[in-house]
Every structure is written in structure tokens, then in C-alpha cells.
Amino acid sequence: GGExxxxxxxxxxxxxxxxxxxxxxxxxxAAPLRPFLSLRGALFLMLKKCWDHLEETILIYSxxxxxxxxxxxxxxxxxxxxxxxxSEEIARYLFIWQVWLGSSYCVQKGRHIRIDVxxxxxxxxxxxxxxxxxxxxxxxxxxxxxxxSIAVTGMIVRLKxxxxxxxxxxxxxxxxxxxxxxxxxxxxxxx
Length: 191
Prior knowledge:
By secondary structure, the chain is mainly α. 76% of the residues lie in helices and 0% in strands. It has helices at residues 6-18, 20-27, 34-52, 54-78, 85-109, 124-159, 171-174, 176-190. It is globular and about 65 Å long. The two termini are 39 Å apart.
């Protein structure tokens, strides 16, 4: 048919602008490549969608896990008079990951707390320069924090430290800081 999918149209428009598709059409070789190009374009769009919603998806599913864990803990503690040490520990560690991933999510959505009394008085051009400067400072801070947290996580790996109740290797908990800092750096570069 003559209709194209959105991914196919997007890929074709990139190739038209780059001059590749017109050259292939002149040579009579564009038709065999169209299914491959649309597959590659669809794969790109799928990966971009996953990347755009990475933190959001992890946060949603982790909250869906924390709620029943804490509910079970409350029922066991106050109804059955028996506390579950493992549910509280898992919920605590999930919450730590949620806080750090939430920071990356806030960078992506531009939702970090900020005071804009100064920036609201700037001209649009100066405001843009100011925003770039602030983003660079944040990138440097996140890079510093990522480097230091990688060192701490490495130390935890060498010590073979585990959590008290569930015996989770603590490097998985400490890894939330470097992972989230790297995500924040990438999100700042996206802006």
C-alpha cells in the first residue's frame, strides 16, 4: 500500500533530508530497504520510549511492591502481634532507591525545587545562559557524587556486607547513588 507507518515516515524523512533515499530511489534500490528502515525506526522509537519512561516505570512498580509489603507488616504487627523484619527491610531499601531515582525523574521533568526570583527578572537570552550554567554545575556535582559513591560501593563489595534480615548484598543498595547520578547527568544533557 501507499500508506506508511509513523516510524517509517520518520525514518524516511531523515533519509530524505540526508540525501540517502533520493539517491537510492534514482538507482532503483530504495524499495528493498524500506522494510529494514521501518523496522529500525520502530526499534528506535521503542527504545526511546523505554528510555523516556525508565525512572517513571521503575518508580511505579516499586511503589506497587512497597504498598503490600508495608500493609502486610502493619497487619502482622498490630493484628497478629508478630513483626516481619524482612518486609520492613525490603521496603526501606526500595524507598532508598525510589528517592534517588525520583531525583533523576525530577531532572527529566524539570521539577526540582528552585527559587526563581532572580531568573524571572532576566531577559530570555540571559535566562538561557543562566540555565545552562546551573545545569553544568549540577552535572559537575552529580559526576563528583557518582565518583565518590562508586568508591564507597566498591568498599562495600570488598567488605562483603549484607543486610541484617534478608542478607541482601549491600552493594545493591549503595549502587542507587552512582546509578541515579549517572541518570541525572544524562537527563541534564538531554535538556
